[in-house]
């Protein structure tokens, strides 16, 4: 599955209709969830039937396309299933009991209720709300995909406008290029990441750089009278600034992950529990700004697309263990240099990246015909890992 996004260009009246559609989808989702909470012995399939009942009971709910109502019910069903899955897996902490939504920003259609123009540059929403025809603005081209390959469309409201996301049932595959290089990645706050060769990628800190502007815009919001038009405009400007930071962070994660995957055949990274790490209130903002989880997701995605092996390893003792001799050298978070009795002196993150690479290779059962940490440390150049090219091609195939 791939998702293509386009901005919708229409009239102000059409946008107000989309807002009504989104509120209706939220209403159906909440009503479906309420029915489940009051009748917890029922099957989840029975929740689909509630969509038809709501359409008969509320005339304005019937304006929403039947498949769009079902998609709204599916959101409640997925939330319920995720809650039961977390309970069954005995996930620590909160299990994510389904909650009623108050600020939904999207409505989802399946294969009906919408239509593309012959040139595929315009989208028409054809259900009872009759939002009308919108021009699609974007750099991607839908001509490459048959109408039957478009399985879902989601209309999303953001601070800077309305967007249409097309979910297309095609598999993205790129021709893998075997380079014969391997890489271990240790993410951090001083640098975004340090690899097993000692190279670093700077941490952009987009949120930190935008804090002054965000504070100024937040003050403007608080000074406006509640319910006034000026307050709505101030809120919109604040939302646009937050949206820009989010997009900068995502763009950086995508480009950095793509560069790492294209340049190596094997990548190992730490499987960090970021959700637990942000409980430290002193580091929470910096950790969230770094977007480690998003970077890891794109590493996994591009690994599948380009046929490369991406391995997530446990983070325990990667910073404490010596990458040369394997001895544990205890150090606090403020200690940035790894100094071992065997004579190894490395940057803390560089040492961790080498340990992550060694763990990843062991986990993937890739044999480089070396004699442990000491041999890897002595080699120094990851080009020598071209010995693994044959085994890599088997594992990716």
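-> sequence recovered:
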């Amino acid at each position: 599955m791939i998702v293509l996004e386009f901005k919708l260009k229409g009239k102000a009246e059409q946008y107000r209709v989309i807002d009504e559609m989104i509120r209706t989808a939220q209403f159906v989702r909440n009503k479906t969830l309420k029915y489940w909470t009051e009748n917890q012995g029922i099957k989840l399939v029975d929740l689909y039937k509630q969509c038809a009942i709501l359409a008969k009971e509320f005339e304005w709910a019937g304006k929403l396309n039947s498949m769009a109502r079902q998609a709204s019910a599916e959101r409640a069903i997925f939330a319920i299933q995720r809650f039961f899955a977390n309970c069954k897996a005995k996930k620590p902490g909160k299990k994510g009991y389904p909650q009623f939504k108050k600020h939904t920003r999207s409505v989802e259609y399946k294969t009906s209720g919408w239509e593309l123009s012959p040139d595929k540059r315009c989208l028409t929403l054809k259900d009872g709300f009759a939002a009308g025809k919108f021009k699609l603005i974007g750099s991607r081209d839908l001509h490459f995909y048959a109408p039957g390959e478009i399985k879902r469309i989601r209309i999303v409201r953001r601070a800077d406008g309305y967007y249409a996301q097309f979910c297309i049932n095609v598999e993205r595959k790129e021709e893998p290029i075997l380079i014969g290089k391997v890489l271990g990645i240790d993410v951090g706050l001083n640098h975004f990441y340090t690899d097993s060769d000692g190279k670093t990628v700077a941490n952009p800190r987009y949120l930190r750089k935008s804090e002054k502007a965000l504070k100024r815009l937040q003050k403007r919001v608080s000074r406006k009278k509640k319910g006034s038009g000026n307050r709505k405009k101030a809120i919109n400007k604040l939302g646009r600034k937050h949206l820009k930071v989010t997009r900068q962070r995502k763009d950086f994660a995508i480009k950095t992950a793509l560069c790492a995957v294209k340049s190596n055949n094997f990548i190992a990274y730490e499987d960090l529990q970021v959700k637990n790490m942000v409980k430290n209130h002193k580091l929470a903002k910096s950790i969230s700004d770094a977007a480690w989880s998003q970077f890891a997701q794109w590493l996994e995605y591009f690994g599948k697309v380009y046929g490369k092996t991406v391995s997530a390893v446990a983070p325990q003792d990667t910073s404490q263990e010596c990458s040369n001799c394997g001895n544990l050298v205890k150090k606090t978070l403020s200690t940035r240099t790894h100094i071992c009795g065997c004579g190894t002196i490395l940057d803390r993150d560089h040492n961790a990246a080498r340990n992550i690479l060694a763990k990843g290779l062991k986990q993937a059962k890739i044999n480089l015909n070396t004699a442990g940490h000491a041999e890897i440390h002595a080699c120094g150049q990851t080009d020598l890992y071209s010995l693994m090219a044959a085994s890599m091609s088997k594992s990716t195939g």
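Residues 123 and 205 are 38 Å apart (CA to CA).
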